[in-house]
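Thread: Modeling a multi-component assembly for a lab meeting

Hi all, long-time lurker, first post. My supervisor asked me to bring a structural picture of a complex we are working on to next week's group meeting, and I have zero experience with this. I have the sequence lines for every component (864 residues in total). Could someone generate the structure of the whole assembly? Inputs are pasted exactly as I received them:
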Amino acid sequence: MKIAARVGLLVASALTALSCNSTTSAKSALYFGKIEPPQGQVMRYISGSEPESLDPQVSTGQPEARIYLALYEGLTEYHPVTGQVIPAIAERWDVNANNTEFTFYLRQTARWSNGDPITARDFVYSLRRGLSPALAARSAYLAYSIKGAQAYNEGKGRAEDIGIQAVDDYTLKITLTTPVPYLTGLVAHQFFRLVPRKAIEKHGDAWTRPENIVTCGAFKVQSWRAYDRLIVVRDPMYWDAGVVKLDQITFYPVEDTTTQMILYKAGEVDAVYNHTVPYAWVDEMRRLKDYMDKPENAIEYYMLNTKKAPTNDLRVRRAFNMAIDKDALAVYRRVVKPLTAFTPEGIFPGYPQPRGDPFDPEKARALLAEAGYRDANGKYDPKKFPVSDMEISFNTNEPNKQTAEFVQAQWKKHLQLTVPLKNVEWKTFLDSRAKLEYKGAARAGWVGDYMDPYTFLDLFSTEFGDNGTGWSPPEYVAMLREANTEHDPAKRYERLARAEVFLLAAQPIIPLYTSGSDWLKKPFVKGMYANPLTLHAWKYVYIEHDRSKWDIDDPPLSTN
Amino acid sequence: MLRFIVRRLIVTVPMVLVVVSLTWALIRLAPGNFYTGEKPIPPAIQKNLREKYGLDKPWYVQYGKMVSNTLHGDFGLSLKYQGQPVNTILRNALPVSATVGLLAYLLALVVGIVSGTLAALRQNSKLDYSSMAVAMLGISVPNFVLGPMLVLLFSLTWYVLPPALWGGAKHLILPVLTLSGVYMAYIARLTRSGMLEVLRSNYIRTARAKGLSERHVLMHHALRGGLLPVVSFSGPALAFLVTGTVVVERIFALPGLGNYFINANFNRDEPLIIGIVAFISIVILLFNLLVDIAYGFIDPRVRY
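Re: Modeling a multi-component assembly
Sure thing. I ran the full set together rather than chain by chain. Output:
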């Protein structure tokens, strides 16, 4: 009896603990959980899945990118607030009139973590290595606009013919085949960050092990244990070491979002990466000062199979788009902004973003009637529509399911069609999407590789042939290419926007929303901002031990 | 006895080969591969990747390489965690899983056997009913419920234990408790029913008739027979526990084999999957062998 009573007590106290917690934090608390800054300048961050590698050229993911911003630098860097380009190893740069030749002037104080100076030749080596077929880097295509890059990567050219040239130790020239006005933003991508030639040639694949690794960022590796933690410490060799405030960052590869929230609440970590707050917690978290909410350089949309009936008919594609209330979807999903276009809203200042078709269920039904799904009186008749040829497929994941259920309900309400949902394991899903085997609609998301609308619009250029929709007309590709020859940024944006209008009119996709950053940080973490990339330039981050400054916004940042 | 052990060890090799071959075939049947991602990769880069990892070779060459790797006990490089040998991953992850698993099982054994024995000795008493009720609860509450409940109490209410991550002894307490719950309950029930059966048997009555003390009867005669079901349960249970438990390792973010195993499957990381599967099957076969050997010592009726 005694044991049973004890168990009862345990359960009861657990339940009270749960209810107390939620009521106190909802009413009074400003912050979530325990707030006690770590000793000294030490930061603990949950960075997502276990990093594939510490080699910036071979891994493509965001979890790695978050870490690379501490360890590696390239010519340029992402601004911690806006995500726009700031100088890094390149102090400044020149561009020729038609955006095909870039000259970068490197700072002479930049050094590797082993003290060796960084010169233009290191950039030449890094790019050649990144493009070598033997390395098989998955992001190599990002450099294809550089002269000779694609040929070399495809095994048809020579490394020496790639359009990257060390004019002298501190001057680097990059020659392109097509104009790339956003190149300075592109080269901040992890693929273009510097890798150490000597260490790679000496250790081969093993160069990324903590005992062999040489880096060039504000921090260097101290220890790394897979699935446990990566500890990086301030690198005194770094050219801007005077600005760096943190002595140490610990990156934890925790995948389970509930575990992340628990670690955060218990004060075991100081910040977590984006899209981590569980749906059910968002309303409560939004009230707290921990919550970091900003639109991201990322969109969520449905691809439509333009090669298979019924979505091969433009009228059907438009109808299905117009029958979704995007504003209601954004409210329902809580952490996103509604989207009618194909580029994220409010991310690219000065970009005249077009608007896609508005929510208009009546017009949607009319379009379907026009497409032949009508009764004798010419009115829309849902019974005529081959609903068994439609599906919403998505990869297994709770938010994807919520979105799909919402869209399903919208189509049922406005079109009287119950489109089946199909949830598929990730790799299986990607396979069916790339091969255009899915019926109707398939979920898709895209995180921009750089801060320019082109990273979204380029998805439908023919080059790789599997954008998942089967839509890629040559005139669209030509519009994009021509826009990039424009030197004046405002005019170029106008032309890109025209291409986007063209894309929206053809409706190979249904835009759903612009993602929101949706992450948490403790009040004592300063210099870390909700930015459109959720990539943080760690050199500006610090721990504020003075409690009186916690609630004050961070001072404006000066970046050199 | 020695002949028996040698025979069983020899059989292990073909059995492991059958297991890894089936696994290998299943990976081939699953759509997608390790380099597919949200961002489509141009065909030329796919070709580079296939060449780099030998996926452009005919299937029998790839299969032959996998078999030879398995026989040599060297599973090659992981596809996902680039540059990392599968053997190194196993070597780093195994101690974590084994520590948590062994501790959990020891705890389960001690608590399970003691409470099961007490319940059997005082059959139909309050103690018996309450401990069996708790055991029933333990079996029914899955560890993904038990874990968060413990975390809620110890980490978020009283702030006495870390909620997750790998560190010192403190970090072990909650995962071990969570993991041992079900096994504790199961062992308690097994012990109780085993003991009840043995206590009624003729040889116990004989022992008592000889005038042996109740303590001697229990420790020397009854427990040996009563624990047989627990012993046969222990083999596979221990094998699963020490090779990593997916749920507990995920909830507590432990750098063990379970985490690798589940992600290797999602990532289509063939060498890593093969390595872990081969390793787990060897461990299961060995533990079963150990159980069979243990039988020879515990049960005088068993002869090899």
